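Subject: mismatched residue count in predicted assembly?

I count 331 residues in my input, but I want to confirm that the predicted structure covers every chain. Input:
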Amino acid sequence: MTNSPADSRPQPAARRRRPERPDLDPRGPRFGAAITAVLLLVVVFLALTGASVAALVLLSVLAALFAWGAFAGAGRHPYGALFKAYVRPRLGPPDALENAAPPTFAQGIGLLVTVTGVVLGLAGLESAVGVSAAVAFVAAFLNAVFDYCLGCQLYLLLVRAGILGRGQTAVAGG
Amino acid sequence: MNPISALSLVLVLVAVATVLGLLWRSRQGRAAVVAPGTPDAPGRPDALTPADVGSRGPFGANATLVQFSTRQCARCPGTRVLLAGLARSRPGVAHLDVDLTHRRDLANRFGILQTPTTLILDGTGRVRARIGGVPSRDVVLQQLDDLSGSTHDQLAR
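Triage response: the counts match. Full output below for your records.
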């Protein structure tokens, strides 16, 4: 038997605020993360070899792609279209579909990290471009290869720090 | 920096990320057994009640699987299906899914660092094992077997 009083009540409100995004094949976001990881590695390489303009441009493009995923939803990401057209037909059906919210949140984290690198790079701090690309690479690589969900982890830590998810303690207490 | 050194550094970065991933994966889904009677966290009472985990549902007579989730958790729904199925297949075993999104107090009290995290309680509500990450079916079944075994020992005494 399963009881979940803690999550049964806040859900209708959440649904009204934000329309439910369709569930995803979990391998789609991982496929996208693999492409992102390779491109971030290229940014690191360019930054290390002193091609700072090229590194900054490529990091900006990646930031724009993260923004796409974060605002349109992980299911509408261009890599997702690539996955559906060329990769998924070659794979068996997925074990289970996943909610699109966690990978969308993860895209937001990627956006934050890469935009920080772009802004600091534009402000003249060239090393920030390579460093932020390296940080984002580790997250994307762990996601692609090990199915690690940095967004999920950070979300919980932000809840624990009191930054997210406040305000309904009395309601959920039951 | 010349391209060879840059390439070496890039490879070091990949190696570091790989080691991180292997370390993380080796700790996933493992059951950490909590010996009965040892308070494993300060301020935690020996036996929990459903209210202690923010739940109204009753605990199971033999064991309870308390799953901690958030709304931003890719693997929590799958874990929920797995644990609910295991609970149904065993008499006296209950499954509770606790959403921590608005229960920061519970996340802090139980020191939850990742979701899903599953506590396995015995029939009296004592925490007997803790599984971080997606639990494997076999690990949970083994823990439930161990629990019912120790219950039988107590009854036989």
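Confidence is low (pLDDT under 50) at residues 4-17, 169-174 of chain A. Marking this ticket as 'not a bug'.
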